[in-house]
Amino acid sequence: ALALPQPAAVRSRPGRVWRWWNLLVSFAHSVLAGLWALFSLWHSPELLSNIQDGYSVSGHLLVCFSSGYFIHDTLDIIFNHQSRSSWEYLVHHAMAISAFVSLIITGRFLVAAVLLLLVEVSNIFLTVRMLLKMSNVPSPALYEANKYINLVMYFAFRLAPQAYLTWYFLRYVEVQGQGAFLTANLLLLDAMILMYFSRLLRSDFFPSLRKGSAGRDVDGEKFLID
Fold it and tell me: Cα(116)–Cα(101) distance, rounded to whole angstroms?
């Protein structure tokens, strides 16, 4: 990330430099983890029939890898004094780290984690969207194309797996111990995803519905604000 050139729009605004580097690292994680999750499910489709106790070495390593990214990103936010503007990410990462560590230790629900990590396929295009906005890309057609691809990927790899896992946990998983903890995390994540989806729709498809964003400086904001 440090070796890649920065667009003029980023270099001219010091507050954007950290965010640009942080997003590039996030983009790299999304590409690796998203493709890894797809490969794990394609290579071992039988895992989908045993979400609670299914196991694969590839899936286990993927969860370890993504846990490492979440820990790294948390420390990056804190050490660069971005906690206030990126507090939502800190909440999300705390949920993800605690849930993933419990899966790594017990070896249960790893398939659920792999399904959740399909969200990283969607994050590829969401991160590209934010990078394009920050760099003031001169080609509106590129942003427009990514906007619609991003919406499709949001449904296919974020909303659909999340909805399926929520239904599965509420119907089949006992609400006690690890099952109760993961179900609570899942429901909180549902609320966050729906909130971000509404922001995305208002920003890219219904800009007239946006409130309180005019003139707001979001250079240090990591989450989807505009």
Answer: 15
